[in-house]
Amino acid sequence: MSLLVAPLALLGLLVGSFLNVVVSRVPAGESVVHPPSRCPTCGSRIRPWDNVPVLSWLVLRGRCRDCGTRISARYPAVEAATAVLFALVALLVGPWAVPAFAYLAAIGVALALIDLDTHRLPNAIVLPSYPVLGALLALASWGTGDWSALLRAVIGGTALWVAYFALCLAKPGGMGFGDVKLAGLLGGALAWLGWGPFAVGAFGAFVLGGLFAVVLLVTGRAGRGSGIPFGPWMLLGAGLGVAVGEPLWGAYLGLLV
């Protein structure tokens, strides 16, 4: 799998550049393909040579070539982070599963940023991801010959969707329905890998999100009624499940016996 790291990292840079457009336009209900990218201040169209991931931002010193307006450092950060995530996917999952988990990493970056910006997880991204991710996981099962993994994915995705739906009903306003829909996606992907990644990823979201909430409360940056986007913590928990879910779950079971 090490042979895939560099190509996937390069692909991640390109995908990350597109994700910047997605994060900006999808919440506003705008097309992600038209019109071409422009400077929001002067309206100048971004030249192709000024749209090279990370490198162009560095060459331009973080400013628009035409009007000198500062370009947010989040743009190259998203591109670099997506490249790192794609490289990690190449190292952590088998070759047949790479398309599914690279796709999940890509939409995860977009959804996390949109949720932080708007406290929303747009249906325009989440709902089409069900058939896309389902097809990619089916491809992975076909390639590995492990059809039980696909059945496990269906069970895991359904179970986590139902669990989040129950939480949503139990405490209205405490969890959005966007989180419920995202739970089905993450549960399916994690369960495809195994019940260890599923358990660690599912519980990891609440542990990480809870710790963050405690820090905000202790430092006075949030009160008991403050709304904290949970989508990013669900995605971080899922990443934890993919990366170390199996050994962590094995260690936990070892303590029990």
TrEMBL record:
Localisation per UniProt entry: Cell inner membrane; Cell membrane
Annotated gene: pilD
Family: Belongs to the peptidase A24 family.
Residue ranges occupied by any Prepilin type IV endopeptidase peptidase domain in the UniProt entry: 104-214
Signal peptide (residue range): none
Naturally occurring in which organism (per UniProt): Cellulomonas aerilata
GO MF, any single term: aspartic-type endopeptidase activity
Membrane topology: Multi-pass membrane protein
GO terms of biological process kind: methylation; signal peptide processing
Top-level taxon: Bacteria
Main location: membrane
Transmembrane regions: 84-113, 125-143, 149-170, 201-218, 230-252
Gene Ontology CC, one term: plasma membrane
Role played: Plays an essential role in type IV pili and type II pseudopili formation by proteolytically removing the leader sequence from substrate proteins and subsequently monomethylating the alpha-amino group of the newly exposed N-terminal phenylalanine.
Domain annotation Prepilin peptidase A24 N-terminal: ranges: 10-91
Matching Pfam families: A24_N_bact (PF06750), Peptidase_A24 (PF01478)
Classification via InterPro entries: Peptidase_A24A_bac, Prepilin_IV_endopep_pep, Prepilin_pept_A24_N, Prepilin_peptidase/N-MTase
Protein name stated in the entry: Prepilin leader peptidase/N-methyltransferase
Keywords associated with the record: Cell inner membrane, Cell membrane, Hydrolase, Membrane, Methyltransferase, Multifunctional enzyme, Protease, Transferase, Transmembrane, Transmembrane helix
Catalytic activity field: Typically cleaves a -Gly-|-Phe- bond to release an N-terminal, basic peptide of 5-8 residues from type IV prepilin, and then N-methylates the new N-terminal amino group, the methyl donor being S-adenosyl-L-methionine
Enzyme Commission code: 2.1.1.-, 3.4.23.43
